[in-house]
Specification:
The complex is a heterodimer.
Chain A lengths: L19 H38 L22 H7 L5 H32 L5 H11 L4 H14 L7 H4 L7 H12 L4 H8 L4 H12 L1 H17 L2 H6 L8 H9 L6 H21 L1 H13 L2
Chain B lengths: L13 H4 L2 H34 L2 E2 L7 E2 L3 H8 L2 H33 L5 H13 L2 H11 L6 H8 L14 H10 L3 H13 L2 H9 L4 H29 L3 H9 L23 H10 L4 H29 L8
Helix pairs in contact in B: 2-14, 4-8, 4-9, 4-11, 4-13, 5-9, 6-12, 9-11, 10-11, 11-14, 13-14
Classes of the chains: A mainly alpha, B mainly alpha.
Amino acid sequence: MTVPSLATTAAPVPYARRGSRWAKFLRHFVPPLISYILLIAVGIMFFVPFLWLIITSLKPADQVFTIPLTWIPHPIMWRNYPDSLHHSGFPFVRLLRNSLNYAVLSTIGVTVASALAAYSFARIPFRGREIWFAITLGTMMIPGVVTMIPTYLIFKWLNWVGSYKPLIIPSFGGGAFYIFMLRQFMMTLPWDLSDAARVDGASEAHILLRIMLPLMRPALMVVVIFNFMGCWNDFMGPVIYLNNTDLYPLSLGLYAFLNRGNRAWHLLMAASLIVTLPIIIIFFLAQRQFIEGITMTGIKG
Amino acid sequence: MAKGKTAYPGQRSLWERLPRQLRTDIVGYLFILPWVLSILIFTAYPTVASFVFSFAKYNVLQRPRFIGLTNYVYMFTRDTRLATAVYNSVYYTFLSVPLGLASSLALAVLLNARVRFVGLFRTIYYMPSLVPPVAGTLLWMLIMDPRQGLLNEVLHFFGLPRLGWFSDPQWSKPALLIMSFWGIGSGTLIFLASLKEVPHELIEAATMDGAGSWRRFWGVTIPMISPVILFNLVMAILGSFQVFTSAYVAGSGSGGSLAGGGPSGTAGGPLDSLLMYMVYLYAQAFRYFEMGYASAMAVVLFLVIMAATLLIFRSSGRWVYYEGGRR
């Protein structure tokens, strides 16, 4: 007989070998112990950099690089935060306004357009629907690098380079992945409500707005959160299209702050934390949608 | 269906007189109109145009001049910086993708084994993925500071030598790898969710047949989640071939800029050791305004990615299991 594994140890083994009590103990406790040790070790490796970010952001300038390392800043410099916000190299209010402008407008556009398209794909049996849906899936396979240069040239021709238009306007067409996800979600919603409304003579727009939208809130939240985060974190788009420092979003502002003469790491870390914080807050407020969104991207893809 | 109040055919509006299917078509296309326009303008046209521009010399100011295969010939025979960029990207992809996938799967398996505090561990592993890429790169540049960074002091504590990391051409790419490793948490979440979907009966049946945990893992769990592995693998390859932000920020911030630091420079890190394919493409397009040459680079990367994806999908028949037979 093979060695019984964890799941079967509960079954009675009447005439066990000598020392089996010890073996049983080992089998019961060692594997979980090892996995806990591994989990905690990795957890520390993941968490310490984070901790270092916080610690450094609270240090006086002369304690950033010390031997031995300084784990508890003395004194704790809370004023690094206001200092980094008022630093001439990091015009926070303007950067924040630009980031919000970008993220909010783009998110409104992408959510509306994606919901419209997804509804059409899920519920309106127009001719050519399958083909367009297949094309939609196909576009997900095309890496952004192929479309980057001609898209830039379009915006150059429109004289939009140097503004947020090239970053925001395309969102108003929707996003392939969001459309796919919303459509899959709508397919799972019951038909009876919308059918009843249709019999009563409601238009498709009415059905979408009044009946489907409230039911779709969790899926729409995923779109909103992911797109907002995508814009907030976006670096390449702004680097390509924005050349005027007045227009920089937070991501670029942080980068410009890094490249300004002597590096004030304590202020840089305070600024980094300030840029990170909104995302973390969103995560904890909408943790469920967040995790659903991440796993949906993986499983249903 | 006609509304109740339209009693006489003659009173029906033009819209209501249209055949029903046609009305459905019109409404349907109206709803997807923004998306269709977006596909045409921002996907279809640029994809075709990239191929066209790749045969031209085009600096935006003058009209494109078609020069046949010159861009490609130059790429493959003369451009030594491109060779460096290809080497860097391949190095990065070949190490970060398998290592990242294997370790995020391993973490997920550990978390799935009825551990306590799953929520806490999950949050800790996922937190780094929430840090905006620029902020994360800054943090790692500090941690891997060549002088007295946190990591060097840890190495020193264990009796190992302090390293130059981003400022040392030999260690800059490993530094980038370590940084990418910090972000495997989202992969772990995806794997964890898929592990939860593996039917319990299958595991139990395998146990009854005397399969140990190792056999169960390779014989049941892995095949059951293989579609997710496939998806993550493809996505990881797409992502790592196109890695930009971390390499760009670390490269230009570590004294490796060629045209002066800051957002106007072309960041390649020390001796171009952080010059990733995308960073070089960006420089060609938006710093040197060699749109034709950059397009050729984009086309080549596109073909490589497509070939890699196709190869994986082709081979997937052998290792990916789909419920209900092959689809």
